[in-house]
UniProtKB/TrEMBL annotation:
Organism per entry: Sphingomonas canadensis
InterPro entries: AlgH-like
Protein known as: UPF0301 protein ACFQ1E_15850
Family: Belongs to the UPF0301 (AlgH) family.
Superkingdom in the source lineage: Bacteria
Length: 186
């Protein structure tokens, strides 16, 4: 069980003016966070021109009746490595449970199951991930840049990628239009 200071199963939202264009308006589903580091999958942006059918064909998987949904930009680390965030009703050879809220799979078996109509009930596909080494995210959380919110699965499966950032802040009672990207001086 994760300690309360760890963010596994939560969302990490980029604050305005985070200072890294790769994370501007980022929404990251935190899939692992402990004293050794952290791993999250970006869910707030899709990869233009890349649909699920294209990805399946690269693995010689017939798309079947699965919708040709957008593939998410999971993060800047290993951008050709695929991940599927999905409901907890399916598990494969490498599936990990994420705080009982969702599951994460990173092998081809989940894509095959989805294409065959035998996979998880809810899912999203991403390429790449966001990763932090030992203590790195903990240090970043002490400075301006990130805000964490509870991992509500409605944000994963019921909200369009481009709306997730604003909706996640709104769910926390914050209007992101009122956030400043700089601090004042007294």
């Amino acid at each position: 069980m994760d300690s309360p200071q760890f963010l596994t199963g939560q969302f990490l939202l980029a604050m305005p003016g985070i200072g890294d264009p790769r994370f501007e308006r980022a929404v990251i589903a935190m899939c692992a966070h402990d004293s050794e580091g952290a791993l999250g999958i970006g869910i707030g942006e899709t990869i233009e021109g890349l649909g699920l059918h294209d990805l399946l064909r690269q693995f010689d998987i017939a798309p079947g009746d699965v919708p040709d949904v957008d593939v998410h930009f999971g993060g800047p680390v290993e951008p050709r490595r695929g991940f599927v965030i999905h409901s907890t009703d399916w598990g494969g050879q490498d599936t990990i449970d994420v705080a009982g809220r969702w599951s994460l799979s990173g092998t081809i078996d989940v894509l095959k199951a989805i294409a065959e109509g035998a996979g998880p009930a809810q899912w999203l596909v991403a390429l790449g991930y966001a990763g932090w080494g030992e203590g790195q995210l903990d240090s970043e959380l002490t400075r301006h840049g990130w805000f964490n919110t509870p991992g509500d699965t409605e944000l994963l499966y019921g909200v369009a990628a481009e709306d997730r950032w604003e909706r996640a802040f709104a769910a926390a009672g914050i209007d992101p239009r009122l956030l400043s990207n700089s601090t004042g001086r007294a």
